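Marked as duplicate of an earlier ticket. Keeping the data here for the record.
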Amino acid sequence: MKNYATNLTIISNKTFESNDVVGQNYHDISSALQTTLEFDKLIATFCSKIEGMVHHSAYAYNNAEFWVDIKKGVFARHKCSYALKFEDQQLGEISFMRNYEFENSELELLESLLCCLLYPLKNATLYHQALKKPNADPLEPLLEANNRESEVFGKAFSNGVNAHIEYNRRVADKKNVSTNSKSAADSHCPWAVGFWR
């Protein structure tokens, strides 16, 4: 559990103990985020749902793995940013901006609300990773295994042919040596040399 908690650095233990406003809106936010797997719609939905609880004039989301860079609103002087990570999987970075500083209570609330975003972002990441694989075939692992097996068989066959060629060459060399050094007794039986092993 400790490893899990360290990976989720933006989550506090007060996630489910938050005030009633978060409790009432938690389900609404989570339900709204389950409607899409597109990064831009997911981030826009999340930011619009939390606007009433944590005011911000702009937001930005960046996910380098998928070349996603979303920016919307009026950028201002004060900013809070979160690197989103779930179980060693990078989910991008989100920032919120406004003209005045974020209070600690607002940051705690925002961190609590970001919990709603993690699973939908993870699902979107997995979805887009699957899309990055062109023409992904569910039988591809079997095809790769078959190709490896064929490659091994091909090498074994090639090695066998090479061994047979080498054997025949040695036999032919022995024939040449034996025909050149035949004794007088063997000269009356030339056909025996052809069957020599």
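See parent ticket for discussion. The first strand starts at residue 58 and ends at 63.
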